[in-house]
Amino acid sequence: MFNYIKGIVAEITPLYCVIDCNGVGYEIEIPLSTYEKIRSQTELKLLIHHHQNDEGVRLFGFLTLEEKLLFRKLISISRVGPKIALSMLSALPVSTLVNSILHDDYSLLSKIPGLGKKTAQRLIIELKDKVGDIEISGQEYGLPKLNDVAKEAETALLTLGYKPFEIRRTFQEILSEEPQITVESLIKRSIKNLYKKG
């Protein structure tokens, strides 16, 4: 029904935004990956997925076509509804999710809230041959490749009990600002960031 909605941002939160389009306010649910890129914008165009069930009509919005495509593929899996699909897109970049599916990394996916090991395994089986058409070659959505420094820091943070997707999202923020950071500094900054978010 809707391909996209473009208008003035009337309200925005990490969970949803309201876009005023010619006097009509559309409430659109969004993942954190979209929120982080649009939170300072006053005018906005979001790609829309129109969802309807017994509970009514819901609109889901995405900044990129890759997010929208992956969302639709995720909710096509039994027991993976919009809530879990949004949680997945909020926890990890599109490139990481797609690569996890392609490389059978169910251990990473199972850490996402609401997913679980069995659902992650079933999701990989059902989607492995269906996500190849999602373009992830660019670094816009993905994490910087983990170099030796990042790998060593990740191992240390895993030992301290932090969750993989939390660590990688924090690395994305830090490494984009300081790509030549040392292991010690990366660990310290990551702990500080994770503490704030916790």
Can you tell me about this structure?
- With 198 residues, this protein is an alpha+beta fold.
- The chain has 3 domains: 4-62, OB fold (Dihydrolipoamide Acetyltransferase, E2P), CATH 2.40.50.140; 65-127, 5' to 3' exonuclease, C-terminal subdomain (DNA polymerase, domain 1, Orthogonal Bundle); 148-197, Helicase, Ruva Protein, domain 3, CATH 1.10.8.
- The protein is built from 9 helices and 5 strands, in the order E-E-E-H-E-E-H-H-H-H-H-H-H-H.
- Helix 2 (65-75) crosses helix 3 (82-91) and helix 7 (148-159) packs antiparallel against helix 8.
Secondary structure tally, helices: 9
Largest sheet: spatial strand order:
3-2-1-4-5
Anisotropy-based shape: globular
Rg over CA atoms = 18 Å
- State the major sheet: 5 strands, antiparallel
Low-confidence stretches: 137-144
End-to-end C-alpha gap = 38 Å
- The secondary-structure element order is EEEHEEHHHHHHHH
Average of the residue pLDDT scores: 85
> What is the CATH domain class of the largest domain?
Mainly Alpha
What is the tally of beta strands?
5
Number of domains: 3
Question: What fold name stands as the CATH topology of the largest domain?
Answer: DNA polymerase, domain 1
Structural class, please? alpha+beta
| Share in β-strands | 15-25%
Query: Architecture of the largest domain, CATH level 2?
Result: Orthogonal Bundle
Helix proportion of residues, in percent? Answer: 40-55%
What's the name of the CATH homologous superfamily of the largest domain? 5' to 3' exonuclease, C-terminal subdomain
